[in-house]
Inverse folding.
């Protein structure tokens, strides 16, 4: 694998709807980094399982991931709660994780030249995928606050959703993501802990920016 030298690599791990994706985008914009929401990769594979169940095997998934482009991950269909639930099931599969990691490693270590580096967010980024990230964050928030954020986000697109259902599905995913055997979500000691429960997006970003600037100037 080609690895670009002297690039900044930032990892963010977090449970669902803790605001990691939003912070990753802000970080990416400020420091000119390629941003990858790694959950979208698992959602992409989950969507294959939902829409092409008869073709769902490792060979086909490999073929699809070899051809995967950033814009494929922007497909709006991938944002649904149903896709998220299936994603957390297929994410327990070791072979699928291996395939998805290949794509994520390319983004982390060999971002296009126009970027100064990469910022990946997910569940196992600082702990497994980009173990030698320069700066690692763990972002979390109270589960009810996370569910309300996700509810509002989904509600804006789909009127049928209800808060209790979203809360239940987030709790279920938290449990599955934290307790699975392979690549469970966990905070390791070198990760900076950010609790976004009662912080606004901008105050969270200010905290993060302060840490990054300090690390960069060290
Ligand atoms: O972050 P998002 O909610 O889009 O992730 C969907 C699911 O994909 C998660 O619940 C998790 O099971 C899985 N995932 C993962 N490892 C990552 C990112 C996401 O297992 N790095």
């Amino acid at each position: 694998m080609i690895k670009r030298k002297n690039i900044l690599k930032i990892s963010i791990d977090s449970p669902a709807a803790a605001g990691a994706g939003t912070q990753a985008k802000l970080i990416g914009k400020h420091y000119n980094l390629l941003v990858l929401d790694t959950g979208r990769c698992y959602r992409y594979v989950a969507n294959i399982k939902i829409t092409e169940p008869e073709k769902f095997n490792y060979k086909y998934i490999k073929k699809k991931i070899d051809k995967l482009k950033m814009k494929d991950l922007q497909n709006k269909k991938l944002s649904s709660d149903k896709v998220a639930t299936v994603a957390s099931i297929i994410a327990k599969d070791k072979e699928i994780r291996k395939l998805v990691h290949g794509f994520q490693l390319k983004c982390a270590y060999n971002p296009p030249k126009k970027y100064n580096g990469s910022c990946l967010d997910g569940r196992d980024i600082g702990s497994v995928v980009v173990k030698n990230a320069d700066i690692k964050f763990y972002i979390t928030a109270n589960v009810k606050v996370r569910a309300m954020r996700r509810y509002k986000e989904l509600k804006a697109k789909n009127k049928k959703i209800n808060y209790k259902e979203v809360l239940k599905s987030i709790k279920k995913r938290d449990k599955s993501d934290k307790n699975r055997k392979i690549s469970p979500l966990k905070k390791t000691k070198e990760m900076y802990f950010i609790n976004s429960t009662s912080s606004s997006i901008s105050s969270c970003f200010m905290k993060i920016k302060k840490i990054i600037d300090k690390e960069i100037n060290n």
Remarks:
- Strands lie at 8-13, 33-37, 117-122, 135-140, 192-195.
- Residues 16, 38-39, 42-43, 84, 87-88, 91, 122-125, 173, 177 surround cytidine-5'-monophosphate (CB under 6 Å).
